[in-house]
């Protein structure tokens, strides 16, 4: 049973997840910008480690929540970093399956377990502790991981071997991106035809085209013109790139996903690295010459 759970990466979603972990376990934390780790320690009573090794030495289980698998591997496989046999790394990053399988094999050589455990539910789900967590890995490590991720999860599912959690997350986010793009385009056209956005959404949300995008994201963020920044478009673009790789590697058609990936990449170039994923609709509005409201 884990009692000490280190947390690495206190970003937009990592911070509220770590807050739940710190309520249940002794939680040493590390963040690239030390000020965030210090602020977290002050708020929760957790310990801010000065170095990565400081977290690893003080933890039975380490959770990473970083932008991509590249940052995870750069940190975890860093030369001179000493992992201890019997430890477990839970990677909550929306990472890529190939990297995760390689990382699992590298850690196994040191007797360390690996579970990819990406999350869905956004920063509000993280605050509420109701995230969906999809886990890939060996059953004995997933059992151990479940105890930890339950701190911030409403639902946990063991989906398959290492890497499959990341594959499933990428496919989920490709669906999110398709919905943002298609709903943005369709609603822009309807508003131009004189249909109020609220009326169009009322109908769609009682019909077969509804999704989280039409039920929640567009009413709460676009129609209100609130445009909060909770999940960067750059990260969604990364996820759809991973989904494309998964489709290609499995010899599956990728026609729709390829087109949406191109749209996201164009929107990202115009809107910039800090733009939120829903702001992709701003760019659709600009090109259509209409506001969805
Ligand atoms: P942010 O960009 O808000 O935070 C990224 C975190 O990673 C920060 O702690 C940052 O440190 C750290 N970091 C970035 N680069 C490096 C590096 N080279 N070395 C060490 N640390 C680094 O991202 P999010 O928290 O939004 O996302 C984290 C992961 O969770 C991503 O994979 C994302 O796709 C996924 N996710 C996010 C959701 C959301 O709603 N935001 C929803 C579901 C999944 P620093 O503070 O120094 O910048």
Characterise this structure.
There is one protein chain. This protein is an alpha/beta fold and 293 residues long. It has two domains: 5-161, NAD(P)-binding Rossmann-like Domain (Rossmann fold), CATH 3.40.50; 167-288, Orthogonal Bundle (N-(1-d-carboxylethyl)-l-norvaline Dehydrogenase, domain 2). Helix content is 54%, strand content 13%. The protein contains 13 helices and nine strands. It has helices at 14-24, 34-44, 52-57, 69-76, 97-109, 122-128, 139-149, 164-192, 197-204, 212-222, 233-249, 255-271, 280-288, and strands at residues 5-8, 28-30, 47-48, 61-64, 88-91, 113-116, 119-120, 131-136, 153-160. Strands 3-2-1-4-5-6 form a six-stranded parallel sheet, with helices on both faces. A three-stranded mixed sheet has the order 7-8-9. α4 links the parallel β4 and β5 (88-91). It is globular and about 65 Å long. The site of NADPH dihydro-nicotinamide-adenine-dinucleotide phosphate has 25 residues, from α4, β7 and α6. NADPH dihydro-nicotinamide-adenine-dinucleotide phosphate (NDP) binds at residues 9-14, 31-33, 36, 65-67, 71, 75, 93-94, 119-120, 122-123, 230-232, 235.
Question: Which ligands are bound?
Answer: NADPH dihydro-nicotinamide-adenine-dinucleotide phosphate
Determine the fraction of residues in helical runs and give it as a percent range.
Answer: 40-55%
Alpha carbon gyration radius = 20 Å
CATH architecture of the largest domain: 3-Layer(aba) Sandwich
* CATH secondary-structure class of the largest domain: Alpha Beta
What is the general shape?
A: globular
Tally the structural domains: 2
The beta-strand count equals 9
CATH topology group of the largest domain: Rossmann fold
Largest sheet strand order:
3-2-1-4-5-6
């Amino acid at each position: 049973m884990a009692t000490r759970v280190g947390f690495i990466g206190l970003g937009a979603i990592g911070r509220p997840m770590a807050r739940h972990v710190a309520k249940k376990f002794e939680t040493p934390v590390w963040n690239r910008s030390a000020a965030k780790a210090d602020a977290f320690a002050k708020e929760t009573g957790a310990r801010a480690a000065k170095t990565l090794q400081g977290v690893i030495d003080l933890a039975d289980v380490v959770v990473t929540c970083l932008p991509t698998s590249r940052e995870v591997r750069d940190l975890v496989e860093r030369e001179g970093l000493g992992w201890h046999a019997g430890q477990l790394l839970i990677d909550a990053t929306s990472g890529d399956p190939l990297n995760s399988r390689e990382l699992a094999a590298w850690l196994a050589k040191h007797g360390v377990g690996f579970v990819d455990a990406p999350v869905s539910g956004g920063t509000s789900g993280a605050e509420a502790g109701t995230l969906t967590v999809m886990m890939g890995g060996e059953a004995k490590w997933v059992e151990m991981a479940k105890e930890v991720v339950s701190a911030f999860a409403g639902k946990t599912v063991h989906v398959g071997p290492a890497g499959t959690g990341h594959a499933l997350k990428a496919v989920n986010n490709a669906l999110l991106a398709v919905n943002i793009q298609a709903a943005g385009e369709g609603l822009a056209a309807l508003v131009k035809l004189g249909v109020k956005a609220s009326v169009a959404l009322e109908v769609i949300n009682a019909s077969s085209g509804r999704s989280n995008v039409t039920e929640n994201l567009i009413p709460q963020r676009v129609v209100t013109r609130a445009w909060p920044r909770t999940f960067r478009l750059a990260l969604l673009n990364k996820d759809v790139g991973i989904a494309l790789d998964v489709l290609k590697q499995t010899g599956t058609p990728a026609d729709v996903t390829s087109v949406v990936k191109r749209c996201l990449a164009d929107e990202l170039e115009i809107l910039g690295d800090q733009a939120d994923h829903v702001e992709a609709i701003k760019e659709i509005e600009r090109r259509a010459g209409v506001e969805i409201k």
